[in-house]
Fold these 4 entries.
Entry 1:
Amino acid sequence: MAEQQHILHPDFWVDKHSDYLFNFAIARVNNYDLAKDLVQETFFAGLKSAKNFEGKASERTWLVSILKRKIIDHYRKINSIKGQAEVKMNFYEDGENEGSWIEERVPQSWDNATEKSIENEELKQQLDYCISKLPEKYAMVFTMKTIQEFETEDICKELDITSSNLWVMIHRARTQLRKCMEDNWFKK
């Protein structure tokens, strides 16, 4: 059986994909104007690289992959070494040693690898516990999207939900997980 060959239709991108791409971007950057700009940059980059489209993925999947790179580039830009040098971190909060450090000069952790490994395992167990306390559908959506890294479109098809519904469930799951972790892990 021959594999389906997808074709680009740039004239319909805004109508067919802008809402989906915007929702994808806003969930990751949490800034309305930035999300709009990233979608516009995605369309522009798509037009520029249309000749490289091989038709193996759907048009939307291809555009999402471009948008992902735009989002990653955005975060790399704001987290550049130059920017990090200006970030100050509290090291001591009171007493004679109170003060801030420039991030790149913060002393390295004194923990050893064994302690970190034990702590990471305990954290994983606590996170698993908190996920198990979520409503079943929230746990399923959160696990598929965040841990198993399924594409939004695939999750929506599998669970027969809209992308908006998916993001609402993920937001609620994260809120409940944050509360559970604060109550059971961070207060130790």
Entry 2:
Amino acid sequence: MQTNRKFLVTGAIFGLIAVILGAFGAHGLKETLSEASLNSFETGVRFQMYHAFLMLILGIIITEKDSKLLFYLFLFGTLLFSGSIYLLSTSTVTGVDFSAIALVTPVGGGLLIVGWFLLVLKFIKLKNK
């Protein structure tokens, strides 16, 4: 079986960073962020971990031919969605007003939705072997 290295490496990196940020949020930010900000931060971590698992699975099952667009949709979708949530939810701690990037979050979410939609179409078109 052929594996897709870029998906596997990216998935592993996403998972590693999600675990680090999840621990940091639970232990380092718990006392400094409001409950709403901490919940937002945790949402970013959760979505990043979901997409880490997805990238690992796709690294095993997807062909090189179908991989490029899906890879970039999930890569940039996760970076924009989770990354912007991390910045927005920690602005009180960093002292930096990241409100100017608030529209990046739905753009990242939109990229993730398109990626999942294309994945559904790909799976519908699969032929039984």
Entry 3:
Amino acid sequence: MGIRVAVAGASGYAGGELLRLLAGHPEFDLVAATAHASAGRPVAAVHPQLAGLDLVFGATDPATLADADLVFLALPHGQSAALAAALPGPVKVVDLGADHRLRDADAWARYYGGDHAGAWTYGLPELPGQRAAVAAADRVASTGCYAVATTLALAPLIAAGAVFPADVVVVAASGTSGAGRAAKPHLLGSEVMGDLSPYKVGAHQHVPEIKQATGATSLSFTPVLAPMPRGILATVTAVPTGDADPREVLAAAYADEPFVHVLPEGAWPHTAATAGGNSCHLQATVDVDSGRVIVVSAIDNLGKGAAGQAVQNANLMFGLPETTGLPVFGVAP
């Protein structure tokens, strides 16, 4: 018997991706998956890509999850904290939601509202010191999808003093799975196909998380809904402090990272190249007109942006190689 794991909120897109990764994981035994409206239904009836996985959704309550060694919470923002608090102390938890990411209670109130549940260890191992912190933690707050793509592009540049932490601008396009599985008119195929549309302009909830993770002090963020099921392409611009080569800074920071790839000169990230994998592709240059540093980042929002990132954290929490059970390469075409 391996490490017993359960997934709460497994009927959504991130939950389904978690089930797919966990079903093939050599050390984790998937023992429970819960849902609200889908409780009592076979998993494959909701996630047809998991045909052959003999599992039925249970109710999302502590009793269903308490026998696991590790619980993943793939619940809507604001719903994780109460459930996590009701789980037995020995159960380790990785939260894919936002409930425990922010250290600043005022930032939580401003962007999410309601009571601040307190901060857990932040689950982005590529940040300095975070790999050891995640490995030592019993409760880990996994990252937001836009936050991963932006933080990996920006954090090493600020840490190295290569760009100013103020006046950072991010425009990032995401596939529709990032908006969740609930039926919404603006996510209908007829509405999305052939269209790009910004949303939550000037007030996206990942802004305080990105600032906290990168050290940025001023951030303008514009998210864009793109007509594709999965993937994020983020363009990050900042003002340089000198003449450091931003690509060299990133290459040095990620030289030993299994999931972060700084592409060769002249090659630019594509979302399709990261689909199905847990990797982030990066490229950087300096704009010849404005002089601003430009970094482009691509991830799979359901992989490195959600389920893959969560499994990477869980591997560290149980002393496993962090690449265990995770695809490094994308699926193309």
Entry 4:
Amino acid sequence: MRLKQSFLLPLAVLSLGVLPACSDDGDDPSPGNDAGTDAGTHARTDSGTDAGDDNPGPSTEPGTCPSNALLCELFDSGNDTNGWSASAENASLQVDSTRTRNGPGALHVLTEDGHDERQRAGKAIAQWQKSIPAFETRLFVRAHVYMRSLPGVFGQMGTFFVLSNFGADFGGFELQVMQDSGFALDDWSFREGQGWNRQPEPVRLGMEAGRWVCLEWEVRRDSTSSTHGNTRVYVDGTLAHDFTNIGMRAFNNFSVGYGFVHPLGASGSETWIDNVVVSTQRVGCD
């Protein structure tokens, strides 16, 4: 069980600074580059809809917030954190107005290379965190994500999203990606069976680097008293993996960002995240 000690501490507000401009190297995720605009815009496919989504909710235009969203962040306020708490360790993040999936901004995360927990304790991760209504039975997260590269070391997990509760109903879990593009789930809900598990090999559909990806995360349980449920991850509307027997609690905090709670040396990364929505209905990729 990989309990995150960092989540036991209050999230410190990060003083956001100006980062060096990124060089144009052919995989520029700005709107003018085909690799950044053609991906992640597909309509939801049958495999994504048929996988238990009986109420997909309304589609929305890119860069808009659905009316039923519990939380929606388009990163259009510059480096104003807009009520989010920002935290970072051996990493930095800012809202970048020049490289977006759909303007005017996207969350830009840089993690530092050379941090290895096998040599010295520490992380390489940056996140924005915000409170949400306590989780009941269904929750859907949608974000558009552009990664320069996947994790560079076998066994190293890059964290995108975290659902947690730091109060009396303490616990949480997080969606991660692996070197082989497969997804992993770190379940520290303190329920029976909790722990770390991953999408089995061979990975037939996983995360991709070098283009914008529509990443969806679905969380379900049968009732508000259910101690276990499942969580699914979709890539461009298609089901990639269903994690079952996952511990559930009244999660009331959501975090988005990228980085490594357990860095293994090759800890440098660059990631953009845009159009983040948390809802009780599926949002879709449009």
